[in-house]
Amino acid sequence: MEIYILRHGAAEDRRPGHSDADRRLTVEGRDKLRRVLEVARAAGVVPPVVVSSPYVRAFETAEIAAEMLKSPRPVVTSKALVPSSSPEAVWQLIRDYSGETAVLLAGHEPSLGETASYLLGASRVVIDLKKGALARIDVAAFGIEPRGTLQWLLTAKLAAARMVPTGE
């Protein structure tokens, strides 16, 4: 299975008296996210399933991804993808979709970096997912503990560099 891990784009600043879960993506966050997803689309990424944290910024990110990557189903939400979740909870969520060829997970740090590291069999966090970054990790079996292989990691900065004309 191809597992795509997508950190939400840049969001509104925290404000006193407002829930962190209600923060929305900024215009800049949406733009940078779209650049990453354009590269992913050009690489043939079409996840049949998109699962998101229920937090607004992650759900907005997931909806943009589902639309741009032509995912055939509506976005599903899961509390397993909230910032305080555990890698084990995310692995169980992934295992629930083991019959699929791919799944895209949209969420937050530190949970996604911890999850990506866990999927790779690391005993500590070895991946720092920047806002709007997309990683692909492949797993061949769905045992108690995963043993995945990192295929690639695309950041908004790299996607922006790809979009700059080189004059060739």
The radius of gyration is 15 Å
CATH architecture: 3-Layer(aba) Sandwich
Number of domains: 1
Shape: globular
**How many H/I helical runs?**
5
Biggest pleated sheet: 6 strands, mixed
Strand order of the largest sheet: 3-2-4-1-5-6
| Helicity range | 25-40%
Q: What's the average pLDDT?
A: 94
- The top-level CATH class is Alpha Beta
- Derived from helix and strand composition plus strand pairing, the structural class reads alpha/beta
How many strand elements? 6
Summarize this structure as a short list of keywords or feature phrases:
single chain; 168 residues; alpha/beta; Rossmann fold; 6-stranded mixed beta sheet; 5 helices; 6 strands; 33% helix
What is the strand and helix layout of this fold?
Blueprint: E1 2-7, H1 27-42, E2 49-52, H2 56-68, E3 76-77, H3 87-96, E4 102-107, H4 111-119, E5 134-138, E6 149-154, H5 156-163
Parallel strand pairs: 1-4, 2-3, 2-4
Antiparallel strand pairs: 1-5, 5-6
Helix pairs in contact: 1-2, 1-5, 3-4
